[in-house]
Structure to design on (852 residues):
């Protein structure tokens, strides 16, 4: 390999040039270190070593993840919360690191105060709606939960206001600008962390499918981009993250689309994954999975090659939706990664943290997941939810928010309106 | 007045000392300029002049405001939107001013892109729910509005994502840090501006009362603090805004509490103010104002002085709620003002803008209004809304979000559950 040094301009697209691009040294123009062969050799070695470390921790993560999926909705939720706490921890400590000189003692507590207020706000709502379905039999608990829901918003508001006043009273002269900056960044961090996790949790309860498929697609896209980039990467994709190449991007897109289509078919056959969870129990799930998950049979056209083993294939309608998710996961979600890369460059940090060997911080792995989770939720709500689910959501509201007398009043009123409209139509 | 100069330490609490505190020169210790009488005279003159300018524009604002209240909900909403645009304009241009050196051309458009996306998101929802009540008779429009609502969220999401991608693609080397900072601040500005206005608009449609009373209380508290501070201000309240004194704060609190109680009684007698508005018309409002606005009569106790003109007084139950609003407006809402003061000091600006003579920018007048609007909404939702209103909200949802067949399905299902529970109880 060391002989490569002499070959000069004839191998600009060889492994060494590729490597230089992928190691992120875009400050140094490619011509400068061309003669330095031994250096490249070391880098080449590192390249494989880092790949193995990364693969190793990936296998562990995927294994643990599969176990949690098997354990059920509440455990997945717990996992999301843990990830979220780690993310907040990484980002908060980053906030302090970049301004190490002007460290303020109370501010760390204030950050976590806001964090837990946001947590109460976001999860209190989700939790209480499930809780009410769980305790619907016990009249006292039912009332208690109803009361909790009623004062949930005002409690969160006063917790926030308390933090807000705390912040104002802790302002120190000559530190104003720094403190206001910290306050703003804390809010940004909370938005980032909670947008991600609240949409993810919402997806989980809509059916694990709607959490697992998008999350897997991002992982597949990441791995595929890494592998394609590793073996075929030549043309740099975007200046922001010099490790990414067009070859990796395109290869990953194709892989992701195919995986989405296949994976949706596999996952779509398990009721454990497709049924929504309306309460907080961890028991087995049975439901009518709906038309989306009922296979439709297509005869394979005559002109299909003879080696193709099936003459008839079954496709779940949800697979077409999976293609949309795949398209998003491979084209738009990577922008979450670019954003994170740009952010890291802006503040001159390599990784957001060092929680996962070979991967960097948890936040580094979550950049695209975040964009994806929000999309998956909105896509599901806008294009997938059959009307019958909307009915159930409104039913939930009625049973949760209204006392029994009002439920009856609403029933009467609705009956009246429906009668009127029926007469109006006929 | 010039003779005051010689009296030295014997008048530290006289008008000049008060003045020094109220002019905001807390960088200069009081002892330094004590001998400089002519200076104080000039300041004193300015003090009255600035008060007159301020009073003059206040009268104009209050007059215009009263006219808009008279014109109705839609016009008040329009006013809120105009205020909101001015605020965003002031804050966005501030963002550029503080970093004049590194001005980026496309960023201004991007800011407004996010602004209008947020606007579509926040108001689209409010608008469409009212709209559906307005067009409920026309079957085609009803369906169209239903469709708009259905794709509202996904539209907003893609508009946001477009802005997000635009931002990433517009990142310029060596500007990363500045650009990410701008991105974060843009989000903070949008949160501030839209939290304020979306809660305000929600209040307006709950009944103008719930917008007008809190907003008036803030204005009254501001004016009272100014007047009390002007005539009796001695003891500085908080370092952040040196113009504020304990005397002003306490005087204003008492005034605000009394005003809240009296004002609620006056405003509570007009149906135009107390009825909620469910559609988008501007016609006259008639409704059963509910028990909150039905006067209760109390006999004045015997020991009351004889000069008191009434032997029986009528009190609306809503007046007790008004006291809570008054308490918040005078104790906690001022922290919005402290926050704004601190922010202005941090970034070394005098005002957020110069739209209103004597007052500074519109943002300067909105600091406490914002905190108050959010509280008024949450208070109203948590403690005031009678259950009958909740019924109407859910009815709205049913009629807006569900096609007719599903409305019937829900009706059947609800009937079944109510039947079951009734049997379970008896």
């Amino acid at each position: 390999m060391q002989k490569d040094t002499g070959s000069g301009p004839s191998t600009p697209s060889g492994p060494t040039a590729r490597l230089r691009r992928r190691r992120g040294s875009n400050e140094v123009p490619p011509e400068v270190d061309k003669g330095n062969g031994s250096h490249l050799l070391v880098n080449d070695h590192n390249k494989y070593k880092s790949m193995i470390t990364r693969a190793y921790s990936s296998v562990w993560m995927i294994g643990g993840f599969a176990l949690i999926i098997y354990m059920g909705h509440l455990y997945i939720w717990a996992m999301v919360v843990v990830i979220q706490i780690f993310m907040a921890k990484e980002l908060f400590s980053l906030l302090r690191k970049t301004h190490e000189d002007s460290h303020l003692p109370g501010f760390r507590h204030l950050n976590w105060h806001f964090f837990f207020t946001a947590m109460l706000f976001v999860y209190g709502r989700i939790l209480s709606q499930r809780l009410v379905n769980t305790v619907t039999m016990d009249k006292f608990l039912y009332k208690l939960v109803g009361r909790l829901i009623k004062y949930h918003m005002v409690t969160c508001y006063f917790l926030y206001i308390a933090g807000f006043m705390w912040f104002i009273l802790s302002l120190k002269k000559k530190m104003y600008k720094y403190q206001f900056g910290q306050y703003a960044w804390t809010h940004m961090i909370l938005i980032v962390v909670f947008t991600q996790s609240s949409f993810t949790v919402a997806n989980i309860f809509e059916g694990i499918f709607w959490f697992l498929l998008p999350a897997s697609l991002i992982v597949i896209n990441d791995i595929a981009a890494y592998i394609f980039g590793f073996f075929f990467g030549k043309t740099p994709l975007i200046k922001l993250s010099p490790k990414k190449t067009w070859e990796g991007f395109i290869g990953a897109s194709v892989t992701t689309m195919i995986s989405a289509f296949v994976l949706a078919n596999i996952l779509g056959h398990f009721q454990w994954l497709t049924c929504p969870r309306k309460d907080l129990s961890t028991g087995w799930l049975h439901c009518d999975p709906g038309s989306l998950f009922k296979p439709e049979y297509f005869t394979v056209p005559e002109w299909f090659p003879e080696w193709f083993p099936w003459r008839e294939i079954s496709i779940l309608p949800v697979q077409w939706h999976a293609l949309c998710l795949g398209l998003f996961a491979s084209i738009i979600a990577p922008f979450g990664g670019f954003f994170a890369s740009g952010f890291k460059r802006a503040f001159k940090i390599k990784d957001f943290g060092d929680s996962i060997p070979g991967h960097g911080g948890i936040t580094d792995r979550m950049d695209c997941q975040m964009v994806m989770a929000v999309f998956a939720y909105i896509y599901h709500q806008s294009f997938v939810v059959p009307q019958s689910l909307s009915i159930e959501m409104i039913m939930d509201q009625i049973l949760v928010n209204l006392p029994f007398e009002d439920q009856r009043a609403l029933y009467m009123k609705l009956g009246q309106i429906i009668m009127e409209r029926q007469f109006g139509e006929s």
Summary: Residues 128 and 358 of chain B are 39 Å apart (CA to CA). Residues 74-385 of chain B form one domain.
